[in-house]
């Protein structure tokens, strides 16, 4: 297992949002996280890189790194955890004062202290990979939503994370440009990146995910292969959720 | 009688051009020796104090935040002239004697520090939370995210109000004449005391301030335009 999460709890004030999440992510696998609105999907994903600080639980990366949230973890451990994962945000969150290329270079140059020249080549190849070879010197506001999100993906890839986290990467996009972002994610899956993706795109989940997790009310209700969860769910709540998505109204 | 006096006064030449020419250079000199260095030094130190104060107010430390609050409140709640007098005329009573120019620098720096800290604080808070998170997500420390991501964006937001602070400062330095600093307005006072041409000399001084502030506002516009290049129109 690349990542093993045990007993993760998170509450906001009186509101218990995650009530004990156990989860394993195999190296090279794609995990899709689905569930109703407000069930805690975003919170869980953000706990995985400590953008949200869990109240309890542990996250283990292979055998090499373990962080325990029962007591406040050290700053150093939090940084280590964050540097193991790359995050792609629903609203992109690109740095508006930097060009696409500079956005991608920021992590390697500032955080990993890599040489600028080498990083520039890396950043250019990443932007090419996501189909933005022509747009490298543009600022975020000069790019479409789909292009911005692809820069966001390249920026996350640039720190060579062990795990990529996506929080509904296409839900802020117009329907006709969702495809260009999904295509990039699909390519990453083929390249063997380990990814956890919160998504409402069930067809996409079915196609790229190796493992699907259904969350409701702060619990993992059911998990398994896409076939098991999306086609033959066992739990009533999963069935209900899928039914509502597939037959809206 | 009254009418007579009025006509007498009005019959004086409206502008004494010789005096204008001979008074202009001393006043400009006063500006170069006093007003400009006083403004530049006070603004530089003031901004430094302001940044530290803003960071203190935003920090997790209650003590630091509290101290910063008291400082800002005290400076904003008292007249600048009174602050100048305390430093220059007051402190000697406890054995602290400071020359006019450094006294003025201290007072103006503290003043800019307090007002600008509010501007900087607000502009830091105006940067969306997602920007911090994007920095953290690529592994940045708090400090790296602040310096690389947040402050550059906050700077853009704070340039217009900080320019106003700067322009106000240029004008406020005239108060330093009251603690014997040789600067533009004090020069005009000296000449006026000799010639009794108060109106003409003070208007000349006003014009000089106006010209400087006008040029500054032009520069302000240019800087804002340059910083605009990465912002959606
Ligand atoms: N910072 C916060 N402070 C307080 N409550 C929060 C915070 N973030 C999330 N919550 C609450 O936690 C619950 C779970 O939120 P979360 O964003 O994880 O849901 P989600 O499954 O991602 O939903 P969606 O599909 O709508 O994105 C919600 O009730 C939400 O209101
Ligand atoms: Mg969400």
Do you know the CATH topology of chain A?
Answer: Rossmann fold
The geometry of chain B reads as flat
Mean pLDDT of chain A: 95
Total individual domains of chain A = 1
Q: What distance separates the N and C termini of chain B? A: 66 Å
In what range is the share of β-strand residues of chain A? Answer: 15-25%
Strand order of the largest sheet of chain A: 6-7-8-3-9-10
Query: What can be said about the biggest beta sheet of chain B?
Result: none
Describe the structure.
- The complex is a heterodimer of chains A (249) and B (233).
- Chain A is an alpha/beta fold and 249 residues long.
- Chain A has one domain: 3-Layer(aba) Sandwich (Rossmann fold).
- Helix content of chain A is 39%, strand content 24%.
- Chain A is built from nine helices and ten strands.
- In chain A, β4 and β5 form a beta hairpin.
- The longest helix of chain B is centred in the N-terminal third of the chain and has 42 residues.
- Chain B has one domain: MetI-like fold, CATH 1.10.3720.
- Chain B has 233 residues and is mostly helical.
- Helices cover 80% and strands 0% of the residues of chain B.
- The complex binds adenosine-5'-triphosphate and magnesium ion.
- Magnesium ion binds next to α1 of chain A.
């Amino acid at each position: 297992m690349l990542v093993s999460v045990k007993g993760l709890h998170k509450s906001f004030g009186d509101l218990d949002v995650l009530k004990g999440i156990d989860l394993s992510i195999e190296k090279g696998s794609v995990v899709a996280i689905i569930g109703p609105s407000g069930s805690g999907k975003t919170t869980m994903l953000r706990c995985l890189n400590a953008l949200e600080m869990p109240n309890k639980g542990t996250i283990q990366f292979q055998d090499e790194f373990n962080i325990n949230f029962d007591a406040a973890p050290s700053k150093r451990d939090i940084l280590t955890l964050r540097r193991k994962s790359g995050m792609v945000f629903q609203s992109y969150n690109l740095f508006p004062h930097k060009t696409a290329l500079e956005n991608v270079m920021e992590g390697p140059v500032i955080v990993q202290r890599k040489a600028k020249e080498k990083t520039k080549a890396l950043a250019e190849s990443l932007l090419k990979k996501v189909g933005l070879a022509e747009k490298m010197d543009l600022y975020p506001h000069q790019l479409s939503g789909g292009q911005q999100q692809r820069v966001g993906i390249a920026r996350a890839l640039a720190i060579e994370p062990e795990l990529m986290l996506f929080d509904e990467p296409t839900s802020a996009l117009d329907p006709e440009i969702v495809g260009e972002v999904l295509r990039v994610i699909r390519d990453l899956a083929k390249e063997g990146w380990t990814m956890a993706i919160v998504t409402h795109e069930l067809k996409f989940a079915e196609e790229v995910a190796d493992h699907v997790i259904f969350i409701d009310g702060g619990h993992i209700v059911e998990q398994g292969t896409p076939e098991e969860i999306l086609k033959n769910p066992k739990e009533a709540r999963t069935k209900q959720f899928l039914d509502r998505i597939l037959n809206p109204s | 009688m009254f009418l007579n006096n009025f006509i007498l006064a009005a019959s004086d030449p409206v502008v004494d051009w010789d005096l204008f020419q001979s008074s202009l250079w001393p006043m400009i000199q006063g500006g170069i020796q006093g007003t400009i260095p006083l403004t530049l030094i006070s603004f530089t130190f003031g901004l430094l104090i302001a940044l530290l104060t803003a960071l203190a107010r935003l920090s997790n430390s209650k003590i630091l935040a509290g101290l910063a609050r008291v400082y800002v409140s005290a400076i904003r709640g008292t007249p600048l002239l009174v602050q100048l007098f305390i430093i220059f005329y007051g402190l000697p009573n406890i054995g602290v004697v400071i020359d006019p120019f450094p006294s003025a620098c201290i007072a103006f720096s503290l003043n800019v520090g307090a007002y600008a800290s509010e501007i900087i604080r607000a502009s830091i808070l105006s940067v969306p939370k997602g920007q911090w998170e994007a920095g953290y997500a690529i592994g940045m420390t708090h400090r790296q995210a602040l310096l690389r991501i947040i402050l550059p964006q906050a700077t853009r937001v704070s340039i217009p109000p900080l320019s106003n602070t700067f322009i106000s400062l240029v004008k406020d330095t005239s108060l330093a004449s009251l603690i014997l600093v040789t600067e533009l307005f004090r020069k005009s006072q000296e000449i006026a005391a000799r010639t009794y041409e108060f109106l003409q000399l003070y208007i000349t001084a006003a014009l000089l301030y106006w010209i400087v502030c006008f040029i500054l506002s032009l520069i302000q516009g240019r800087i804002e335009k340059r910083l605009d290049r990465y912002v959606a129109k």
